[in-house]
Design a protein that fits this description.
The complex is a heterodimer of chains A (395) and B (481). By secondary structure, chain A is α/β, with parallel strands linked by helices. Chain A has ten helices and 17 strands. The chains are: A alpha/beta (395), B alpha/beta (481). Chain A: This is His-Xaa-Ser system radical SAM maturase HxsC.
């Protein structure tokens, strides 16, 4: 597991740093926003643990020794606190834009905090300008990024201009998109590589509103999805399977297939045992083994509705084989682990494994090695033509 | 400390959204919402729905999710229903997409169930003229539809290839300016298929639709021709088309006769042996020659329903064993049942498909609202004759009472016994059938073979969908086709 923040072992700075973000370089003369990793000579030098603390040098703690040229870090003015914002060798980079949120999901992995953290938005804007144009993918998460309104749209516009070839994924609860003015502004960014991922936890208000702990959220979220569709925006729906949503998963899938068939993608996701999920364990935990058949039915129903459907964060041994082709090795490289039972498994390579948090706190009681992969295991599932709805023109 | 929201199923008073229902003999009640999404309830649950006293939270969630009830003042369920309803009807704006050309009445077959008043091969006065053909293409292009399908019928259209070629070339010439999506299909028994026809089909992307009633003896018994070799010639034609143009370029249709009853498994096996994985279990039509009282061929709808059920049981069994087979009509119904898409099948739409989904141009220049409408005319009933290409403008053809009256009267949203039927969204209006059998475009549904057949199909499909997870998954796949 890779750590993304830590305290420097030592920091020897002449004076406080005047900039926060630094791109690490190892084999070139550093520019004004670049720090040298490994050896000295720059405005700021970063050495791995065990290295010499020369002038203007920050010594990394051992767990950040993975840093290398191309990575971008945030450093506190005194050089003591280091945060990794961009890992050049990872395909899973995402930026936290705020910890504020108007939902309070029972299983939130990033529990909301009510305080002004708009510096995160400014920092994201600066980071986007520093990224290489070859950056493959960048996620924007929260909290709820749309709480910034126009501020978020400005960031997306900057990102679109600086990184025309990068895929962007925004994670939002979708409620703000119920405001037609905001959705029109969002759509005006006109970035075909921008997709918004919106969680949906029920097929009607009561269940969804309970799971997100906000009355009226379902109506706003679904209205938001419809407004985005009117503007032909790319939409992903995310459903987290937990104790309340798992029994309703076929109903939720049916609702999406029938009412929101225009969405580009649906992600059916296992619970991540961090944040509020651990605090609310009794209210949210359910063994994936118990809902495996319903999950498979829901996934195939969506596929037959022409919607690309992926299953995330589920180990192959708790999934019916007919949906193995839909299971994605999704867990970020710095989050996934395997149990001892997995070591003799014949399909471990194809399996996403477990979140480190799940391995530690709670995972299915049915994790077991699969002795022989069946020859049909990775056979493709036929997909259907996408369906559309005849939407009225946007206002 | 944050105040925890409890799982409250319905914080406010409820009200009904439009729904319809149908009782099952086992006590369950089928409930459908205004766009045809369905749910089965127990008798007690149905009473709770009727009285709006729904204590079971899971039931209430389902009824809200399926837009059967809403909380007073909620607007989202109505918006979503409107969106779905609008999507189901959007093909109406496209108007007529299917244009059938009866290029000749001549045929070398003499099938007992033929819907057409066939003429012998020598009688060329029953061929379509070049003037008529060009006028018909002109009329077809008056339709605003972005997709135009030209279907050549007969008689046997291969007996008048000159006109088939003329229509195809004329349509393609016109389309150079129009840029629509054109499709061409020849409905043929394939007995007269030759290299010239194949060259032509290759050059113009023409598809073939043929008749295959099942095994050799059944087929040849149903479809006599000189030499009693209809089956052999059809199979040979299918093989040649596939070899020359590709497997998908020919499809087959079967007609159920009295001789077919009890043989549905053999018929399906025959289709599979011949490489057809789509089969349409189709009852005989009560038109034209087929309407004549030849009791030997007659059977009632109850017999066909048994035939269909047995066939579907077998088809589901085959699929479960890994052999893919689709029953085409069921797949059309399932698309209407499980999605908002309208497959545009002319016999299963409301408003009816006559005229506004399909038009038929007869060899003599007469324009009919449907194929069946022309058959009635061959027997002296001109009800669905919209006019004549030589005399009437497109506007006259499409706005006359011959078309508009039956469309309006048969509309299932208002027709007696259709408007309150739980299956209404999946069904269609067939004014020609009801006119032919009862003398008016609406008919009395309990006596209607059209209604009996569709009810039986809906009930069969729902029973399998509900009881059998494998069938459910398969049906979703069919609906997606």
């Amino acid at each position: 597991m890779i750590s993304l923040r830590g305290r420097a072992l030592s920091a020897t700075l002449d004076r406080p740093l005047t900039r926060e973000l630094w791109r690490l370089v190892s084999d070139k003369i550093p520019g004004p926003d670049e720090a040298v990793i490994g050896s000295g000579g720059g405005t700021l030098n970063v050495v791995r643990s065990g290295g010499d603390a020369g002038p203007n040098t920050v010594v990394l703690p051992p767990h950040l020794d993975h840093l290398d040229g191309g990575d971008i870090i945030a450093v506190s003015p005194d050089g003591r606190r280091i945060e990794v914002l961009w890992r050049a060798r990872s395909r899973h980079n995402s930026l936290l834009l705020t910890e504020r949120c108007d939902n309070y999901c029972l299983m939130c992995s990033q529990p909301p905090k009510e305080r002004d953290d708009s510096r995160l938005l400014r920092r994201a804007s600066a980071l986007v300008r520093m990224l290489p144009p070859t950056a493959h993918e960048l996620g924007f998460t929260g909290g709820e990024p749309t709480l910034y309104g126009s501020g978020l749209v400005s960031l997306l516009r900057t990102a679109t201009q600086c990184l025309p070839d990068t895929e962007f994924h925004l994670l939002s609860n979708g409620r703000r998109f119920a405001d037609p003015g905001f959705t029109a502004e969002y759509a005006s960014v006109r970035n075909p590589r921008l997709m918004v991922g919106i969680p949906l936890f029920g097929a009607e208000p009561s269940l969804h509103d309970y799971v997100v702990q906000a009355r009226g959220a379902f109506d706003e979220t679904v209205s938001g999805i419809l407004a985005l569709a009117q503007h032909r925006q790319r939409i992903e729906i995310r459903v987290v399977l937990q104790k309340n949503t798992a029994p309703a998963i076929v109903e939720i899938a049916g609702f999406i297939a029938r009412n929101l068939p225009f969405v580009e993608k649906v992600a059916l996701m296992g619970l991540e045992m961090t944040g509020l999920a651990r605090a609310n364990l009794a209210e949210v935990w359910t063994d994936p083994y118990e809902y495996r058949n319903e999950l498979a039915e829901a996934a195939l129903l969506l596929r037959h509705a022409g919607i690309r459907t992926d299953i995330y964060n589920h180990q192959l041994c708790v999934l019916p084989r007919r949906v193995w082709p839909l299971a994605v090795r999704s867990i970020s490289d710095w989050k996934n682990e395997y149990l001892s039972a997995c070591m003799s498994c014949s399909v471990q390579e194809a399996c996403g494994g477990l979140f480190a948090s799940s391995a530690k706190h709670r995972h299915s009681d049915h994790i077991a090695a699969i002795p022989h992969p069946t020859p049909r295991a990775r056979e493709a599932i036929s997909s259907a033509q996408p369906q559309d709805m005849v939407m009225p023109a946007p206002p | 400390m944050r105040q925890r929201l409890t799982l409250e199923t319905a914080p406010g008073p409820l009200e009904h959204l439009p729904f319809r229902f149908e009782r099952w003999t086992d006590g369950r009640v089928l409930v459908t919402n205004m766009v045809g999404e369905h749910v089965f309830l127990s008798e007690a649950e149905f009473s709770a729905l009727a009285d709006l006293r729904i204590a079971d939270p899971a039931l209430l969630r389902t009824l809200r999710a399926k837009h059967v009830v809403r909380q007073r003042g909620e607007t989202l369920p109505v918006e979503l229903l409107a969106l779905k309803y609008r999507t189901q009807h959007h093909r109406l704006a496209d108007f007529t997409g299917l244009h059938m050309f009866v290029v000749t009445l001549r045929c070398e077959h003499s099938c007992g169930y033929c819907q057409v008043s066939r003429r012998t091969v020598a009688r060329t006065e029953f061929d379509m003229s070049a003037e008529t053909a060009v006028a018909a293409v002109e009329t077809a292009f008056r339709s605003p539809s972005p997709h135009l399908k030209f279907e050549f019928q007969g008689g046997e259209p291969l007996l008048n290839m000159e006109i088939v070629r003329l229509v195809t070339q004329e349509a393609q010439r016109r389309n150079r300016d129009e840029g629509r999506q054109l499709a061409f299909v020849i409905a043929s028994n394939l007995a007269l298929l030759d290299d010239e026809v194949l060259d032509f089909a290759d050059e113009h992307d023409v598809y073939f639709s043929t008749s295959l009633d099942g095994p050799q003896d059944l087929h040849n018994g149903n479809r006599p021709r000189p030499g009693r070799d209809s089956w052999e010639r059809t199979i040979a034609g299918v093989t040649r088309i596939r070899k020359r143009l590709g497997h998908h370029r020919v499809s087959a249709l079967m007609t159920t006769t009295a001789a077919s009853l009890g043989k549905v498994r053999d018929i399906i096996d025959c289709y599979l042996e011949q490489g057809f994985h789509d089969i349409f279990l189709r009852p005989v039509s009560p038109y034209g020659f087929a309407l004549r009282p030849r009791q030997r061929r007659a059977y009632d709808m109850a017999a066909w329903i048994d035939f269909y059920r047995e066939g579907m049981d077998y088809i589901l069994e085959l699929n479960a064993r890994g052999t893919p087979v689709v029953e085409t009509y069921s797949a059309l119904v399932l698309k209407k049942m499980l999605t908002n898409a309208n497959p545009g099948y002319v016999d299963l739409t409301s408003p009816a498909g006559i005229g506004i989904a399909a038009l038929l141009y007869n060899y003599d220049g007469a324009v009919y609202a449907s194929d069946e409408g022309r058959m009635l005319a061959e027997n002296g009933d001109m009800t669905f004759r919209l006019g004549d290409l030589a005399e009437d403008s497109y506007d006259t053809l499409m706005t006359g009472a011959a078309l508009l009256d039956p469309l309006e009267e048969s509309y299932t949203g208002s027709a007696p016994q259709c408007s309150d039927c739980a299956f209404e969204r999946w069904c269609g209006a067939d004014p020609v059938f009801h006119h032919a059998t009862t003398g008016d475009p609406v008919g009395r549904k309990p006596e209607s073979a059209f209604c009996n057949r569709n009810m039986a199909v809906f009930r069969y499909l729902l029973d399998r969908y509900t009881a059998d997870p494998h069938a459910r998954e398969l049906f979703h796949a069919w609906a997606a086709r």
